[in-house]
Amino acid sequence: GLQESMLETVIPRGEGDRVMVVLGPHAGKVGRILEREPERSRVLVQLQREAGRVLQLDYDAVCHYVGRHEDD
Questions:
Q1: Which residue from 38, 28, 32, 30 is spatially nearest to 59, judged by alpha carbons?
Q2: pLDDT for residue 71 is more than 60
Q3: Which of 28, 33, 54, 72 is in the most buried spot, having the most CB atoms within 10 Å?
Q4: Where does 18-64 sit in CATH, by number?
């Protein structure tokens, strides 16, 4: 019974925190926050398995990731 309007996007506060991409062509991939742009509601994310790939994503396209790390 939840509606999208009832939800609020929560982005980790620290740079280096892990997020998962949940929207778009990179959905399901995990990365680390390089930079936050709160005034534009965007983050720069470096994908975990693609070291050279950096994405600029809206807050709604990512979520805090608390799962296992590939080094665990």
A1: 38
A2: no
A3: 33
A4: 2.30.30
